[in-house]
Structure formats: C-alpha cells, structure tokens
Amino acid sequence: MAAYEYVGRQFRVSADIVGAEMERIEARDGQVTSKSLLDAGRPEESVLHSLFEWDDSKAAELYRLRQATEVITHIHIVIDEKPNTPYRAYVNIQESSGQTERGRFINVRSAMENEETRRIVLNMAISEAKRFSQKYANYKELSEVFEAIDRVAERMKAS
Fold it and tell me: Quick check: 37 and 22 in contact, CB under 8 A?
C-alpha cells in the first residue's frame, strides 16, 4: 500500500486509512467515484463514516451553501469588446494570514482596483499555478509552462 497525505486540507480520518479504502474500492469496482466512497462510508462501523455529515438537516444546509458557492464561482462577466471571452465576476479573497474566510467573495473589478486585494488575488493565482506545476511535474512536455510560471512568480516576488 502507498503512503498517503492530505494536501491543503485535513479530514477526520487519516489519509492512509482513506487511501487504503480507496484502493479497496478501486480493486473491487475498477475505479473510485464520489458515490462509491460515500457508499463505503454509510455503515456506522465504516472507518470512513465520520468523513460525512449524517444529520440530514445539517447536510442539506451545507449542500445549499455549496450550491451558492458554485453559483458565485461560475458566474462570469461578458465584456462587449470580447464577447467570446467571459471573465470570472467574483474572486474568493484569502486574508494575509493565509486563512480563507469561506464565502467572502469580491467583484473582480473591485478586487483589482485595490492594491491589497489585487496583491492577494495575484498571489493566489501564482499559488494555484505552482500547485498545477507540482501536480503535473512528471510531464516533461509541460516543462516550458512550468518555467514560465516560475519566471512570473519570481518577477512578482521581486516587485
């Protein structure tokens, strides 16, 4: 069995336990889906059970909040000059402390006009690009992309 760890988030069950269960599901089904993972966690005695909210009223509210976030993150602005190139209308702003205040979204135009929020948005973009680079580091065909990301990150750090 491989060793597992969570990146960017922690859950109530160790990554090694979840990884082993996912390996078991994949061996049985040939793949892992959200539904197969949820189904594996349904029995109260399952090691995955505590990963999920089983109180239906709480789960319903969390799901509706998730839907609201999906709406906010998927609405785009269409600019007359570039009608075939929509832009995200709102961005989630992470505070300087590195903590994300979930659900705190600011209009992109407002965020980019303010020096502090502009810096936060651009730093978040570079962080996402770096995660992309790490995720696909084994793909040599993308090395030029990774080098460009590094150059932009260094230029931003210097300014």
Answer: yes
